[in-house]
Amino acid sequence: MGRMPNFLIIGAAKAGTTALYYYLKQHPQIFMSPVKEPNFFALEGQKPNFRGPGDGEAINRFSITDIEAYQALFEGAENALAVGEASPLYLYSPDAPKRIRRHIPNAKLIAILRNPVDRAYSAFLHLLRDGREPHTDFRKALLEEERRIQEHWEHIWHYKAVGFYYIQLMRYYDLFDRDQIRIYLYEDLKEKPIELSRDVFRFLGVNADFKPDMSLRFNVSGVPRNKIIHAFLSKPHPIKSLFKPLIPVKLRQRLVVTLRNRNLAKPEFPIAVRRELVELYREDILKLQALIKRDLSHWLR
Hints:
301 residues, 5-stranded parallel sheet
């Protein structure tokens, strides 16, 4: 039988999972799958056929749904103490917990939770950034959510639905021991990244003194100030291909991420919509803070 991971970053989407993936990937005792979001446990055995704008080039293309192809992701992990991957869809997927339990029942599970109101807006800006969201008005996009779900658009379009963390986490607490699950807040990652990474390293049983490079901000959402520059930095281009062999991978990544982030603007969150979403999530947030024993009152402001 092929190699399987012994830990997973299960979510939430737009809550810092990309940053955590890159921090963990730097650790010499940790192996992270080369495909960041294989989505295997959410989509096992399926042929992804999501129908939203750009879904064909995104989730339909990079998801891995065959177990042999999934195991092949971890072929280079022989000497690693911790072997993992990061698919934020796992927290939202009703099927993922059961499949994880069946395939890797002793896996350690990590989730980062972001204020669901801010998370929804960040997902909206992410799709605006990539030229996929047809509405520039967040309220109009929210009104389209139910139709989009019915028409089988992928999960990033489920702006409101993805944010009900209590319901989603309970599916994991019902199937796994609590000491297998570690929950963090997005605020922890932003304000205390070193402490968070050390806690994750201890949880995974690797050297907790290792300090990853945390100077880059990954997968930032926003509206491109210049769409031509954004397209050049984000998509394949002959000029980039020409210089690719001449620039070391790490330097190339640093240049692209830094320039792309500087080209993004973040429009003001409409206050009336924020109030409506806070009320939508209020009951779930109150249940969640009791479940994870963290004060989440600031999410309700």
